[in-house]
Amino acid sequence: MKLVAARFIAILMLVIPGLLACFGFLKMKDSVFIYFSEFGNDAVTPDFQWLKFLLGFIMFFAGAGFIGGWTFFRDRKRNYVAPRFKQKLPRPPKPQG
Q: Structural domain tally of the chain?
């Protein structure tokens, strides 16, 4: 039962940042769409919703950054990354002679 609970928690740790990134993207998209859609309406002066856009920007990059970092850490642990991203091994000490 512990294995099932651990796997469920691991899935939630990836789903929650994914949803955060999704909602952040939607907030950015909505603020841009509302700004451009107000140009046809003469009763309203178009203004950009900066706070909503910045909140969406932060949410998107926090979620995407968490998932990207987790994937990179996992791939580095399993040696799936390019040689330049692998952890450097310390040099052995020079022999005294």
A: 1
Chain-centroid distance, C-alpha 19: 10
- Exposure of 71 in the CB half-sphere (CA atoms within 13 A): 9
Record the pTM.
0.78
Q: What is the pLDDT of residues 18-75, one digit of tens each?
A: 999 999 999 999 999 999 998 888 888 889 999 999 999 999 999 999 999 999 999 9
In the chain, the amino acid numbered 25 is F
Scan for tokens 């009763």, then name that residue: 43
Structural domain of 45: 2-85
Question: Is residue 25 classed exposed, middle or buried when 0-12, 13-18 and 19+ CB atoms within 10 A define those classes?
Answer: middle
Q: Could you give phi then psi for residue 89, rounded to 5 degrees?
A: -85, 140
Residue 16 within a domain: yes
Convert the pLDDT of each residue in 1-17 to its tens digit: 788 999 999 899 999 99
Is 41 buried (19+), middle (13-18) or exposed (0-12) by CB count in 10 A? exposed
